[in-house]
Write a structure and sequence with these properties.
heterodimer, A: alpha+beta, Uridine Diphospho-n-acetylenolpyruvylglucosamine Reductase, domain 2, Uridine Diphospho-n-acetylenolpyruvylglucosamine Reductase, domain 3, Alpha-Beta Plaits, 4 domains, seven-stranded antiparallel β-sheet, five-stranded antiparallel β-sheet, 36% helix, 19% strand, B: Alpha-Beta Plaits, four-stranded antiparallel β-sheet, 29% helix, globular
Chain lengths: 479, 361
């Protein structure tokens, strides 16, 4: 097969040496590693089609890979499989300021789209924390979010069209520059499908006018409950902030010690709120929010006086991961979403589990849309700690499902949460997912073993009896 | 009469039996809500599955921005309940009758004038429970805004015209109602109007509607009063004497334009917003800032599909004299094959609304 690749790919586009393959053995979920048989780095769509045709004919599995920043092991290679790296398809093909769209190749970095669009007064809204490095192709595979989802939506809301190549090598266009298209909405189905249905080779992204005015504010609370009430009060007042983030006390301390953003170290929780729009509207709403947060019990509400102060408020939040990296040898980032009203009770449950597993946990998350990111602290050098961290993480995700939420808000299932899929979905639902996969990839060669567990795996996990239908009564307190 | 909640398991069991029986006999089923959009899509026949009794709101907490309801619930009821809490369905679904249902709204996937600015039905759908053609009741997505577990079947169901299964329940994200709205207009040619609509779309103004009809460009503004008034000043247009009623008429097709005598072919073209005037003869109305165009035309369907495709969009015979033939833009060979494979995955015996979207599908 490698000989076949070398007929149309230059030698430096086909990696087979073990030393070089090691670079591709994992993504950002480094607890799982696997060396692939080979890595190919095509430069063109035609080459991708040819690679897939060859693999299809030879029944060889293919795992697509962008920047490898994924947190769920979605780009983990398969033994004897091919890793298809899209890293060389990095061109921004077109920015059309009139239609407000950008047409890009899959290897384009997320942030660079907004950087290029800026000269036209436009930006690309989805902004995952890894946006400096992560690629658009990977964002589409995972339906990535970011801190501005509450107002601007996820990747699925910001993609107009895709060109994809199927496992058989067919090039298909889904969606277009019109606002809808004929037939079934395969554009939505493809977004977030974790490289299981087809390979994205080009994307048309929606751009938005840059907001003319922004306001950042910070509020401190003595209890997590009050902070949660503050979030609900803002929404109930009919205000949709661009960003609404929460941090618990361990998070505040870790971030403050690292970047000295001026966070109140003794607060049980802080909220960071970003508003954008026209100046008059933003100023009026920020006053309204300050009052609402004080009524909810905020001990302090700070308004950033200028851009620099606003950036300082955000600096701690943005540096949360490296900040936690300083206080623990290793950390494991979880990604469940819950209805907002359960924030306080779920955080309490996480504290109890933390005591049970004897592992620390830091919470820094997207409160506006209920997307939790508990960071479990552990040390891989201590025997058994990684296993305990994984089990602890699994229990958190199962708690999210119990209160009517989901095991993944924006990081994807990948290999990491494959067991928890058995908790969220019953066997009939998983069978339907397999049927969808089969419609696109009957041989099951694209990213096999990810995202949707086999029924056998679920039986082994022993969780089939607690499928979501029996536990979806969010009004019941379970802990 | 709505089905009492204690009888819902029995209702589900009966529906499942009906599907099993239909599969065994190869008898297609025709899913029906209020029938307010029965004219839309290809004509198809089957044994009726009436969903109107399956109504009621299951869960609504305004601070979660999510509402969950049974498919037979009327859109009117949903909107009334939301409005009491100062919220709305952000995509302004067209209601061609007072009884238009949630299920039909999702199955047709149609959105109103606000669509280019706030998004479409599929943008706001978070989860569904449905009965597939395989006879299984399955739940996809959920009641939270961010959720990437499993394939996005709920969005696939949106606009699928009931060809993959029966929608039983759905959860939707909702948004606050605008605090203030204003309708503006100005007389101009279509070329001028297209230019103005393009210019305005690039600015950060609180536009929630942009249309052109009979020599008049119209805009609707929505937001806080201060923002709306500022945008009005920036636009320099007149206040529209028809006010916000025009936008309701455009949304629900109660404008005179949409009420021709039976037999006229009304085409809906979905095209890139900046598409120049199109070679279609007949009365027209431009909505969605140029991205949705309505034409009365008796030109052959093939010509209209060709025109739409070369503009980078697609055309639907929205209301016509003959819906026994094709009404949706034909698919390419490879897309057709994928559609059939997906149909097979959900409805292997092709009993769900057979032929409503494409023949044999």
């Amino acid at each position: 097969m490698i000989e076949k690749f070398l007929k149309f790919l230059p030698a430096n586009s086909v990696i087979t040496a073990e030393e070089a393959l090691r670079v591709y053995e994992c993504d950002a979920l480094s607890a799982y590693r696997q060396i692939p048989a080979c890595v190919v780095l095509p430069d063109t769509v035609e080459q991708i089609q040819e690679i897939l045709q060859i693999c299809h004919a030879a029944d060889v599995p293919v795992v697509a890979r962008g920047a490898g920043t994924g947190l769920s092991g979605g780009a983990l290679p398969v033994t004897d499989g091919v890793v298809l790296s899209l890293a060389r398809l990095t061109r921004i093909l077109e920015i059309d300021p009139e239609l407000r769209i950008a047409r890009v190749e899959p290897g384009v970095r997320n942030l660079s789209v907004s950087e290029v669009a800026k000269q036209y007064g436009l930006f690309y809204a989805p902004d995952p924390s890894s946006q400096v490095a992560c690629t658009i192709g990977g964002n589409i595979a995972e339906n990535s979010g970011g801190v501005h989802c509450l107002k601007y939506g996820l990747t699925v809301h910001n993609v107009m069209a895709l060109k994809v190549v199927t496992m058989e090598g067919d090039l298909i266009k889904l969606g277009g520059e019109a606002l809808d298209s004929a037939g079934l909405d395969m554009l939505a189905l493809m977004t977030g499908s974790e490289g299981m249905l087809a390979i994205v080779v080009e994307a048309t992204l929606k751009l938005l006018p840059l907001p003319v005015h922004q306001k950042i504010m910070l509020a401190a609370f003595d209890t997590v409950e009050e902070a949660g009430n503050g979030v609900a009060a803002i929404i109930a007042a009919g205000i949709i902030p661009a960003g609404l983030e929460m941090m618990d006390n361990p998070g505040i301390r870790a971030c403050e010690d690292f970047v000295h953003a001026g966070y109140p170290r003794e607060a049980a929780a802080i909220l960071l709120c970003e508003l954008d729009g026209i100046p008059e509207e933003v100023e009026a709403e920020s006053q309204e929010i300050a009052d609402l947060l004080r009524d909810a019990g905020a001990t302090e509400v700070r308004m950033a006086r200028d851009k620099a102060e606003g950036e300082r408020f955000w600096a701690g939040r943005k540096a949360a991961f490296p900040a936690v990296g300083r206080i623990a040898a290793d950390y494991y980032c979880m990604d469940g979403t819950i209805p907002r009203k359960h924030i306080a009770s779920v955080l309490q449950r996480i504290r109890e589990l933390s005591a049970e597993y004897k592992l620390g946990v830091v919470n820094v998350f997207h409160a506006g849309d209920g997307n939790l990111h508990p960071l479990i602290l552990y040390d891989v050098a201590v025997p058994g700690e990684l296993e305990r961290a994984e089990e602890f993480g699994g229990r958190i995700l199962e708690t999210c499902v119990e209160v009517g939420g989901t095991i993944t808000g924006e990081h994807g299932v990948g290999i990491e949460k494959i067991n928890q899929m058995c908790v969220q979905f019953n066997s009939a639902e998983l069978t339907q997912f397999h049927a969808v996969k089969n419609a696109f990839d009957p041989k099951g060669l694209l990213n096999p073993g990810k995202a949707v567990p086999t029924l056998r795996r679920c039986a082994e996990y022993g969780a089939m009896h607690v499928h979501s239908g029996k536990l979806s009564f969010p009004e019941l307190e379970r802990f | 009469m709505a089905i009492p909640s204690k009888d819902i398991p029995e209702f589900h069991a009966r529906l499942k039996d009906k599907v099993a029986e239909a599969r065994a006999r190869g008898q297609p089923l025709l899913i029906q809500g209020s029938n307010s959009k029965s004219f839309y899509g290809r004509h198809c026949e089957g044994e009726s599955v009436d969903m109107t009794a399956y109504r009621g709101i299951i869960n609504y907490d305004p601070t979660e921005l999510v509402i969950t309801a049974n498919a037979g619930t009327s859109v009117k009821e949903l909107e009334e309940v939301l409005a009491r809490e100062g919220q709305m369905l952000p995509f302004e679904p067209p209601c061609f009758s007072e009884t238009t249902t949630l299920g039909g709204m999702i199955a047709t996937g149609l959105s109103g004038p606000r669509r280019p600015y706030t998004g479409s039905v599929r943008d706001y759908i978070l989860g569904t429970r449905c009965l597939t053609g395989r006879g299984e009741i399955l739940k996809f997505g959920g009641e939270v805004i961010k959720n990437v577990a499993g394939y996005d079947v709920s969005r696939l169901m949106t606009g699928a015209m009931g060809t993959l299964g029966i929608i039983l329940e759905a959860s939707l994200k909702v948004l606050p109602l605008p605090k203030f709205e204003l309708a503006l207009c100005k007389a101009m040619t279509v070329t001028e109007a297209m230019y103005v609509m393009g210019e305005i779309a690039r600015k950060s103004l609180c536009i929630s509607g942009a249309a052109y009809q009979n020599g008049l460009v119209r805009f609707r503004l929505s937001g806080k009063q201060v923002a709306v008034e500022k945008a009005w000043k920036a636009l320099g247009l007149h206040e529209d004497p028809d006010g916000l009623d025009y936008w309701q008429g455009l949304r629900n097709h109660t404008l005179d334009f949409f009420n021709r005598e039976n037999g006229s072919n009304l085409w809906r073209l979905s095209v890139p917003a900046n598409t120049a005037s199109m070679e279609i003869q007949g009365d027209s109305l431009i909505d969605w800032g140029g991205a949705q165009r309505w034409y009365y035309s008796e030109q052959p369907a093939e010509d209209i599909w060709q025109i739409a495709e070369s503009a980078g969009g697609h055309a639907t015979l929205f209301r016509g004299s003959n819906n026994a033939k094709e009404v949706f833009q034909p698919l390419s060979t490879v897309m057709h094959k994928l559609h059939q494979q997906l149909k097979q995955a959900f409805d292997p015996d092709r009993i769900m609304n057979r032929g409503r979207m494409y023949p044999d599908f």
